[in-house]
Structure of Cell envelope biogenesis protein OmpA:
Amino acid sequence: MTRSILYSLLVTGMIFASQTTFGQMAKEMLTDNMEGGVSSVDGYVPSMSITKDGKTAYFSKASYQKPLYGVFSKKELVHEIYRAEKVNGEWTNITKMDVCPNHYSAKHPTVSEDGKRLFFASNMKGSYGKYDIYVADIKADGSLGVSKNLGPKVNTKEDELYPSIYNGTLLFFASEGREGYGGLDLYATQVVQNTLTPSVNLGGHINSKSDEYAIQLSPEKKLGLVVSNRGFNNTISQYTVAYGRSNKQDGYNDVAESDAGLQTVMNTSSEYATTSYEDQQ
């Protein structure tokens, strides 16, 4: 067998092995983010965000990478956002999205109801503090436009994380940069095009002295599922809360008798502020 044939077989084998390895990695990435969960590294990990037509999903994945400076420095944990497409019932075509400069993190993506914008948290240069909430337009080819910081009505000098969209314009997120009930509290703001209302704390029936990460509402039942670490030994779990009710109901961990925060932001009129998002390079 000639050297050229051996070389060709070797290269082919390397390519096949590389494709197989990437395929396995892709499956693991999707499996880890399909329904969310709890990570020993990141704590609560939200499930991947899927477009209304069910054809596109966004999720984040963390990996240890060499820092930009310091040859002998330890590797740093960097979060990156990925996009996947559903083809013939299978998630495939996994692509890393360029939403922030290298060596910065972007995580917790959530896609708008119309599939035209992606909200996420990032610690990129230009943030108000640690992690801020950003938004980027989703182009027709699937790529993203310039990432834009939502500004001081949402972001603070501390962390803002876990954005999620409800009913088209209501943006929920977790923040530890405001005076609240302790740890991460859940807040909400109404977002329409490039304008937003001041953020509102969802109140003491939803937030606690522990960390609250996310909320999912069920309007028909007037119930919400809150993800929090208020459990024994800071166990992260879901807790059922009721809103818009005046009487306590048995079987719930917390029930709202006074839910001014959540009701305020849900009933806000369309008189939005004129502040536009600031472009971040």
